[in-house]
Amino acid sequence: MTREAITYLLWSDLVGVTRTRGVPSADLASKAEAGLGWACAGQALTAFGSIVDNPWGPMDEARQIPDMASRFDYEGIPGEGWSAVICDSRASVTEDWDCCTRSFYRRALEALRAETGLSFCASSEHEFTLEAPGPVEAGFSFAAARRGNGFLRACCAALRAAGVTPESLEPEYGVSQYEIACAPEIGVAAADAALKAREIIRAVAADHGARASFTPKPAPKAVGNGAHIHFSLVDAASGENVTHDPADALGLTARAAAFCAGILAHLEALVAITAPTPVSYYRLTPHAWSCGFKAIGLQNREAALRVAPSPSADPARRRKGWNVEYRPSDGCASPYLTLGALVLAGLDGIRRGLALPPAIDRDPADMTPDERAALGIVPLPRSLDAALDALEADEIARGWFSPTLFDVYRRLKRWEAATARETDEATLFARYLNAY
Ligand code: GLU
Ligand code: MG
User: What is d(CA 162, CA 197) in angstroms, rounded to the nearest whole number?
Assistant: First the structure.
C-alpha cells in the first residue's frame, strides 16, 4: 500500500489535551506563514467530547501557526510513523491570541526577563500508568523494568529523536506505574519538551499494544501519577544558574527565595491550574509523597516546594545543578499553563520582595495543627472547586490571564467539578484514565 507522510500541527489546549490538524508533509512549507484555521470555540472543548458555553461565535477563528523549530518525527512501527510541529495559536498572522497557552507562557517568560534579567529553566518528571496485558510486577522491581524494557527502550530512542533528552526511565511504586524524567530546557522549550514527551510515551505504548495514562489517580486508592517540575533561575545574559547560594540555610539566592515565596503565596490559586481535575485532589493528600501542604523544605517530599540540592561535591557543579521541585502538578494540566503560572507567581514574589516561611524538615502531616499554624503551614485545597475559589479570590493571579482566557478556563473547570459531583467514583476515575 502506498503511504504519504503527514505532519500534524499540534497545540496544547486549556484542558491539557494536545489537539491537532494534519497536512501532507509535502505541503508543510506552504503553511509556515499562516498555518491552518481553527474555530476559537474549540478552546472551550472539554476532554470528554463536550463543549462549555463560550464567548465565540461561528465566525471566530484563530490561526494555528507552526513554529518550524519545534518540528519532530515519530518513527514508530515501520510505515506508521508521523511528523509533528508545535503551533502558536494566533488571532491573525500578525497578532497574538490571548487564549493561546503557548503565548501565555512566552509572555510570562518575557516579563520575567524584562523585569529581572532572568530566564527560567525547567524539566518534568512524567509518571504514568501503563495498562498492558500480562502479569503485574512489584513496584520499583527489576522484574517490572524487564517487563517494560522494550517499551522503555523505544521511549528512550523516540524521545531522543524528537530532541527530548530522557534522563531516567524506570518502574515506579504503583501498580503498572512507570516514570520517565527528562532533562531541563530553558524557556518555551521546557513546555514543548513536556508536550512531546507525553505524546511520544502515549504513541510508543500504543505501538506496544499498551496504553499510557497520565491521570493523577488511576483509582481512588491507587498510587498517584505526578508531573513534578524541577526549576532553576538562570541569568539570561551569562546562562549561569543563579539559584544557589551556599551561605543560605536552604541554599537559595535571595532572588530564588523570593521567587519560591511568590509560588507559595499563590499556591492555592496555582493548584487550580497545575492540578486541574477533580481526581487531582485525590492525589494531593499527606503521606503520599505528592504533597498535601503549603510548605518548603530541603529535600522534603511532603512539601509543595522541595529544594533539590545538587549531589556534587564540586562547587561549580553544585551551582549548576541546584534546583527546586514543584510537586503539586500533574499530567492533566497544559504544561504551558503550568510553567507560565509558576513563572508569574515567582515573578510576583521577586517584585514584592516576599520572604519565605520557615523551612520544614519533617512531614507536616505528623505535626499538630497548632505546630503547623505556628509555621504558616496550611493544607492544600481539598477539591477542584476549593482551588477554583482560591484562584477566583486571588486578584493578582486572576490578572495573569486575559479576561477571556480566565472566563473560559473557569467555565471548563467548574463544569468538570460539577460533572464529577454527579458521577460515581468508578466511572469518574475510568473517565480520566481514558482521557489522559
Ligand atoms: N507518585 C508521587 C506523586 O504522586 C511521587 C513519588 C515520587 O516522589 O517520585 O507525586
Ligand atoms: Mg516519581
Answer: 9
